[in-house]
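Sequence only, no structure available. Ideas?
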Amino acid sequence: MEEKKANEVAVGGGGVSVAVTRFPMEQKRPVGPLVVVGVRDGVLWLIDRYMCAHAISLSHPGIRCRCLAAYGDAVSAVKWATRLAREHHDDLAQFLLGMGYATEALHLPGISKRLEFDLAMQSNDLKRALQCLLTMSNSRDMGPDNIGLDLKDILTVIVKKENLVEAVQGIVKFAKEFLDLIDAADATAQADIAREALKRLAAAGSVKGALQGNELRGLALRLANHGELTRLGVLVNNLISVGLGREAAFSAAVLGDNALMEKAWQDTGMLAEAVLHAHV
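Reply:
I predicted one. C-alpha cells follow.
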C-alpha cells in the first residue's frame, strides 16, 4: 500500500487535491511549460502543461549527454549519446551544435544527411559536406566529362536519362547549399571541392526554369572566378536556347564576350529592351 502511494502524486494548488496521477516510469519529452517538482533517488520529477506528472531518470544517456556537454566534456557526451537509438541522434547533435561542438557531433552515427551537412560546414570538413550534398541531391554519378553531352538530353527530358533528370532536380533543391559550399571551399583554397560542386550546379543551371535568376548570376560569377570559361560559354548558349535573355546576357558580360552578349539579347527578343535601357 505504501509502495503504491509512493508512485502517486496530488497535482493541484492551495492545498486542494485536484487530481491523483500515477507517475510514469519515464517520458521522452514532456510538453512545456514544465514545473520542476524536485529530485529524488536520481530521478527528476516534472509536471507538464496538461498537469501530468513525469519521472525522468538523471542516469538516462540523453540527460547524461546534455549534462556532460554543458559541463564542457564533449567527448564523453558523444559516448553517452551513442548508447541511445539512432532516432535520438539528431536531437542530441543539435544540442551539441548549440554548445559549439559541431566536430564532436559528427561522430554520432545516426544523424541525418541534412544535419550532417550543416555540422560539416560548421566544422569546416568540406569534403564530408560535399559527400552529404551529393547524396542528398542524388548527383553523385554526374561525372565531369558527360555534362556537355547530356545537357541536350536534360532539356528534352529523354526517358533514358531519368537518373540525370532526378540529379538535376536534386541539385536545384539544394542550390543554395551548393553555392554556400563553393564559397566556403574558395575561402579555404579547396579548389577541387568547389569544382565538383560547380560542375553540377552548371548542369542544373542550363535547364529552363530550374534555377532562379539570382542563382544563375551567382553561378556565372563563380564559374568566371574559377576560370571555367568553356563551361561558362556552354551555360550562356544553353540559357539563350531556353529563352533566358537577361541571365544569358549577364553571363556573357561576365565572360567578357560582347558578341555573345548581343546574341543573347537578339535571339531572345530582348534587343530593343536592352537598347532602351542603354540610352536611359
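Residues 1-27, 144-149 have pLDDT under 50 and may be disordered.
Hope that gets you unstuck.
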